[in-house]
Design a protein that fits this description.
Oligomer: single chain
CATH superfamily of the largest domain: Aminotransferase class 4, branched-chain amino acid transferase, N-terminal domain
Helix content: 10-25%
Strand content: 25-35%
Distance between the termini: 19 Å
Number of domains: 2
Number of strands: 19
Largest sheet: 10 strands, mixed
Structural class: alpha+beta
CATH topology of the largest domain: D-amino Acid Aminotransferase, Chain A, domain 1
Bound molecules: pyridoxal-5'-phosphate, 2-OXO-4-methylpentanoic acid
Shape: globular
Number of helices: 9
Length: 370
C-alpha cells in the first residue's frame, strides 16, 4: 500500500503484523504515565546527500540498526519535536498546531546543520502515524497521544562535519499527566551552578544535547527536594529563562487587571508553542501580556510583597503546571499560598478546551486528522 507525504515523496505503508492485544492496550491507556509505552507503528524517512529525502515508510515500531560510528552517537547531531493528538469531544481526532512544530523543527535543523524536512511532509508523517494508531489515543481528562518526531545523523564517519545521511522518525506514546502528582503545584530549584544555554549557542533549538546537558542540574534539583530546575541567563546570571522542558509565566496583580509576564525570546530559550498560544489566549481574555526579562530578585521581591500572585510553567508535555515553591542558594520563597492560582486554571482550561474541540477554534490551531 502506498500513500504520499508530499507531491514527490511516496509513503510505503506496511501495517504491523503483530499489534498489542486490545486488552493489554486498554490497560496501558488506563494509566499511561509519560513516554513509557509506544504505539504499534512508526514513520521513517532517509536523507542522503545529493539525493534528498527518500524511502518514506510507515511500518511496525521496531529497534533501529545503526553503525557504531554513526555521527549521532559521537557528536550528538540530533533534534526532536513534541506535540499531541487529542480525541475531540464531538468525535474525531486532532493535533494542535503541527505546522508550528514543523517550522520549529526546520529552525532546529538549520541550527544543527541538518537537512530541512519539508513542512508538509512533517505534518503528513504525523497524520499518517496518528491515523493508523488512532486506537492508541487515550480518552479522559489529562490524556492524549504524545508524538515525538526526531532526526538523527546516521552517516558512518568519525570526522567532525555535518553528516551526509540522516534518519527522520516519528514515534508516539500514550500520555497522562507529565508530573506523577498530576495538576499540583511543583517546586523548582534555580540552577546557579550550571547554565543551559549561552548567546550564540543552541538554546532556541530543540537539540538533543541541550537535554543531556541539563540532566545534572535536574538531578541536583531533585536532591534538593524539588521537581524541576529553573534556568537563568548565562551572562548576567540574573534573569529567569525557562524550566526543564517548559516556558514560564508570571502573574502580576490579580483579577481582570492582572499582567502576565513571560521571559522574552533572547535566543537562549526555546520558543514554546504553548507559550505562544497562551500569549494570544491571555491577551484575548483581556490581560496585559508582556514579554520581557524578569530577574530572580524581582521574582522573589514581588512574590514576597504579594504583588506577584501566580507563576506557572507551560509546554506540550506539561500543559500548564503551577509553580508553588522556589528554592535557590540566594533564598527560598513561596508563590502566594503555594497553591494553584485562578489565572493559571483559567488559561489551562481554555487551552484544553481548544485542544479537545470543546470550543470553536477561531485561530486555525486545531488540525483534524480524522
Ligand atoms: N522549553 C523547553 C526546554 C522545552 O523542551 C519545551 C518543550 O517542548 C518547552 C519549553 C515548551 O515548548 P512547547 O510549548 O512547544 O512544547
Ligand atoms: C515537550 O513538552 O514536548 C517536551 O519536549 C518536554 C520534555 C518532554 C522534553
Amino acid at each position: 500500500m502506498t500513500d504520499r507525504l508530499s507531491a514527490d515523496l511516496p509513503l510505503t505503508v506496511e501495517p504491523a503484523r503483530r499489534r498489542m492485544h486490545a486488552g493489554e492496550r486498554a490497560r496501558v491507556l488506563d494509566s499511561p504515565g509519560f513516554g513509557q509505552v509506544f504505539t504499534d507503528h512508526m514513520v521513517s524517512l532517509r536523507w542522503v546527500k545529493g539525493q534528498g529525502w527518500c524511502e518514506a515508510r510507515l511500518s511496525a515500531y521496531a529497534p533501529l540498526t545503526l553503525d557504531p560510528s554513526a555521527t549521532v552517537l559521537h557528536y550528538g547531531q540530533a533534534i526532536f519535536e513534541g506535540l499531541k493528538a487529542y480525541h475531540q469531544d464531538e468525535g474525531g481526532i486532532a493535533t494542535f498546531r503541527p505546522d508550528a512544530n514543523a517550522r520549529r523543527f526546520g529552525r532546529s535543523a538549520a541550527r544543527m546543520a541538518m537537512p530541512a524536512v519539508p513542512e508538509d511532509a512533517f505534518v503528513a508523517a504525523v497524520d499518517a502515524l496518528v491515523d493508523i494508531d488512532r486506537d492508541w489515543i487515550p480518552t479522559g481528562a489529562e490524556k492524549s497521544l504524545y508524538i515525538r518526531p526526531f532526526m538523527i545523523a546516521t552517516e558512518a564517519f568519525l570526522g567532525v562535519r555535518p553528516a551526509t545521511r540522516y534518519l527522520f522518525l516519528v514515534i508516539a506514546s500514550p500520555a497522562g499527566a507529565y508530573f506523577p502528582q498530576g495538576v499540583e503545584p511543583v517546586s523548582v530549584y534555580i540552577s546557579e551552578d550550571y547554565v543551559r544555554a549561552a548567546p550564540g549557542g543552541t538554546g532556541e533549538a530543540k537539540a538533543a544535547g541541550n537535554y543531556a546537558a541539563s540532566l545534572l542540574a535536574q538531578q541536583q534539583a531533585a536532591e534538593e527536594g524539588c521537581d524541576q530546575v529553573v534556568w537563568i541567563d548565562a551572562v548576567e546570571r540574573r534573569y529567569v529563562e525557562e524550566m526543564g522542558g517548559m516556558n514560564l509565566f508570571f502573574v502580576l496583580g490579580s483579577g481582570p487587571h492582572a499582567e502576565l509576564v513571560t521571559p522574552e525570546l533572547t535566543g537562549t530559550l526555546l520558543p514554546g508553542i504553548t507559550r505562544d498560544s497562551l500569549i494570544t489566549l491571555a491577551h484575548d481574555a483581556g490581560y496585559r501580556v508582556t514579554e520581557r526579562r524578569l530577574s530572580v530578585d524581582e521574582w522573589r521581591d514581588a512574590a514576597t510583597r504579594g504583588t506577584l500572585t501566580e507563576t506557572f510553567a507551560c509546554g506540550t508535555a506539561a500543559v500548564i503546571t503551577p509553580v508553588g515553591h522556589v528554592q535557590a542558594k540566594t533564598g527560598d520563597f513561596t508563590i502566594a499560598d503555594g497553591g494553584t492560582g485562578p489565572i493559571t486554571l483559567q488559561l489551562r482550561q481554555q487551552l484544553l478546551d481548544i485542544q479537545h474541540g470543546r470550543v470553536v477554534d477561531t485561530r486555525g490551531w486545531v488540525h483534524r486528522v480524522a
